[in-house]
Amino acid sequence: MIRLLLTFLAVAALLAPAGAAAEWKAGAAKVTITPENLMWMSGYGSRNKPAEGKLTDLWAKALVLEAENGQKLCLVTLDLVGIDRGLMQELKDRIGKQTGLKEHEIVFSCSHTHTGPAVRGNLIPMYAFGTDHSQRVLIDDYWKLLTTRIPAVVGDAVKDLAPSEVAWANGTAEFAVNRRNNKEPEVPKLRAEGKLVGPVDHSVPVLSVRRDKKLRAVAFGYACHATVLSFYQWSGDYPGFAMMALENEYPEAVALFCTGCGADQNPLPRREVSLAQDYGKQLATAVSNVLKEKMTPIKGAAKAQYAEIDLGFSKIPSREELEKTAAGPDNAEARRAKVLLEQWTSRSEWPAGFQYPYPVQTWVLGDGPRWAFLGGEVVVDYSLRLKKELGEANTWVGGYANDVMAYVPSERVLTEGGYEGATSMMYYALPSPWAPGLEDKIVGEVKRQLESK
Description:
It is a single chain. By secondary structure, the chain is an alpha/beta fold. It has helices at about 1-15, 85-100, 135-160, 185-195, 235-250, 275-290, 320-325, 330-345, 380-390, 410-415, 420, 440-450; strands at about 25-30, 40, 55, 60-65, 70-80, 105-110, 115, 160-165, 165-170, 175-180, 205-210, 215-220, 235, 255-260, 265, 295, 300-310, 355-365, 370-375, 375-380, 395-400, 405-410. It contains 12 helices and 22 strands. The strands form 7 sheets. A 5-stranded mixed beta sheet has the order 6-5-4-1-8, covered by helices on one side. The chain starts with a helix and ends with a helix.
């Protein structure tokens, strides 16, 4: 009898499909990154003093996935306005040394909250002038805090890896408004009349991780600026309230927000805490509704790629031009000129023909979504175009990923100009608007990565 049973099991094993034992694994963790001191804030150039208190904590959260083929993927979400290329490289290096994760397997997604701290290297003109020595020390100290806590939380997520059910689906939230096409004071009336105009992306992509049917993690996205609040208190803005609501509803889960291509999208109306809470609730409800419906299980192998492509500028100013601007009235242009002169002197960053190494990263999650992560403040045209050309059903596009170096306009927005197309470059201390052709370069690289074997 025993011999017969063993023979049956052996035959069953031979007949089982190859890879039947393979499964996805996942792990998640979170850690506070709320500044320990009342330091300078980022996001608005008009700020003239440090933070005065805290409305909510700020968080770094990590989700690590391991696909059936052993490919690992690490998503790190940050309640920060952005990080620069230098911090991205430092973090990826430290995480790699501590966990073995590789550059193309790690992505950072910033919520772009405008009630977070100044981060060294990002939006330099907003804090490099007008802050005293003690504040600059605090900014340096905070950078060091990030370089220890973020790798540590990734390490915790790796330790949490365990067999999990991973699935995904899409929801909808409608509070984002195209700010280039609708005047802010008129939005309530236009919305009531159904007359809001301009491109938007109201989709809410959701990735769930369950163990023993219980939610362990949920990553979700939305294309909209985190600019409801503009006061002097630490806050995760509406994304923070959305994550808090989900973690209250699912106490064993880690909720991670991934900003979409929302550079030209605002939550309107705004400026009140109650509005931030309401938008957060709307977004959390959209996610929760998806979680309660049947989601598409993710099976199969994963793939990850990362590359940097060269984007040019419309003009590289001469040293003489920068010196003249820097000596003029104290404004955003003068501050940019001072930063560029300092960089030119120390690192020779602005020779004629200088190009920026723009980061493009993609993940293919088995038979589930194809996920594109784009650096900078990306306008909504990118997600709409990529979904149209790659398939809306399984394409997820995020902005504010890895290196938040500037606004990234589409060709349309670049031609139209305005803040997103031109003048915002002053606050990022880049020499001029981007050169034409950037949209096709970025979209082309996304396609190249996703279509390669």
